[in-house]
Design goal:
415 residues, alpha/beta, hypothetical protein PF0899 fold
């Protein structure tokens, strides 16, 4: 019935709104941040719509039992004066008689007279029923079931793992100590009362520029008006695109490192150990994370020792080099937290710590502009990103070129 179809439509839209709110909250949790102002605005709009839908469902889904006067009018249809090729005046009359076969003799008479003539047929879908058939297509509302499926992975795993530094300026500088005399600026006194060692150092400021990443789409107002929650879906998917591009941008930045270690298969752990030592030599701090893509994660998960035992078992990794599971991307490798990101599309691994790269972001609110001339609106999402990779050891400001030692080390050759 039309009422049932309308209620299903309300319930489907309500489910989409709830899923949308849960998605915003989940994204904030995954990224370790508070909800953006735009998120809070979208959640409030969705909650208001849910409340309105609940009131609609309550009113439409109430008692719709046919009034007694209508029942009496239908029951007065005299089957004795109906022509042999009797036709029901509406689908509703036909359904009423069909549903009251056991309670109304008049309904039985009309039903039988209608079906005694040369048989034609009725189907749910006229086009999909045998010839000489009618259909109830006009009463059928095709609704979607469940939330919209999106095969694209969401979130910014590496972006979040590195830690995002919020900024308010489009350009700023990062101060850093450059001490060419770090190991010689303090030394033993030659003789009592002789002059101690005295050597200076410098503090330099390196500029960090912010670049805008974003995109827009032109949406028809008719689409927004006719398809429930379409505006929410558009903004949500645009933000997912922005997340993917942000993650790709940080991968591009760490890939600029000139320090790398090649794996000699099957001794993967030896290469990870060598790269860890190089990170410490370059930054004075031990590594804390190991970034990889799904291919690298799969290759590590499949590694075994000479006895055929997995190096990264799901349970009981007492004698293994870490722990991993095929049910999620959670993995530890030699004590390092593994970060699996869709932005790395090969088996390259990257190892580093917080001194290797800094991430800066200024998230911009969703921007909309109404365009009456085309009966639509433009919707844009954008964020400003900046990256800083300090060169941790130099001979001094006058050293040309400086001795570049990166805080991120690339590990290649995993198969």
């Amino acid at each position: 019935m039309a009422v049932d179809a309308l209620i299903r439509k309300f319930l489907d839209e309500r489910e989409q709104k709830v899923t949308y709110i849960e998605g915003l909250a989940s994204a904030a949790e995954d990224e370790g941040r508070d909800l953006y102002e735009t998120d809070l605005e979208q959640i409030q709009n969705a909650r208001s719509r849910i409340a309105f839908l609940d009131s609609q469902i309550d009113k439409v889904g109430g008692d719709l039992e046919m009034a007694d006067s209508v029942k009496q009018r239908l029951s007065r249809l005299d089957p004795t004066v109906v022509a042999r090729d009797f036709q029901y005046r509406s689908a509703g009359e036909y359904l009423w008689d069909g549903l009251h076969q056991n309670s109304s003799p008049e309904a039985v008479t009309r039903w039988q007279k209608f079906h005694r003539r040369a048989a034609e047929h009725l189907g749910l879908d006229k086009a999909n029923t045998i010839p000489t058939a009618g259909g109830f297509n006009g009463l059928v509302v095709v609704s979607s079931q469940g939330p919209i499926l999106d095969p694209h992975p969401g979130g910014r795993p590496l972006f979040s793992a590195l830690g995002v530094n919020p900024v308010t300026s489009s350009q700023f500088s990062r101060p850093r100590i450059v001490d060419a005399n770090y190991m010689t600026g303090v030394g033993p006194q030659g003789q009592e009362k002789s002059e101690l060692v005295s050597k200076t150092w410098d503090i330099i400021a390196e500029p960090v520029g912010m670049k805008v990443y974003g995109g827009y789409i032109n949406v028809s107002e008719l689409l927004i008006d006719m398809i429930a929650s379409s505006l929410d879906m558009v903004v949500t998917h645009m933000n997912r695109r922005l997340e993917a591009v942000s993650e790709a941008a940080v991968i591009t930045e760490i890939a600029k490192t000139s320090d790398s270690v090649a794996i000699t298969m099957p001794d993967v752990m030896a290469a990870i150990g060598e790269a860890s030592a190089l990170v410490f030599a370059n930054t004075g701090q031990l590594p804390t994370w190991l970034a990889m893509g799904p291919q690298g994660w799969g290759a590590l998960l499949g590694l075994t020792d000479l006895a055929g035992r997995p190096l990264f078992p799901a349970v009981g990794p007492a004698n293994a080099m870490g722990q991993g599971s095929a049910t999620d991307f959670t993995m530890t490798v030699a004590g390092l937290r593994a970060v699996v990101t869709q932005g790395i599309t090969d088996t390259t691994l990257y190892i580093g710590n917080r001194f290797g790269i800094e991430v800066y972001e200024k998230r911009h609110p969703v921007m909309q502009a109404i365009e009456p001339s085309v009966f639509g609106r433009q919707i844009a999402v954008a964020t400003s990103l900046g990256f800083y990779r300090p060169i941790t050891t130099e001979a001094g400001p006058s050293d040309t070129p400086p001795a570049e030692r990166n805080g991120v080390v690339k590990i290649t050759g995993l198969t």
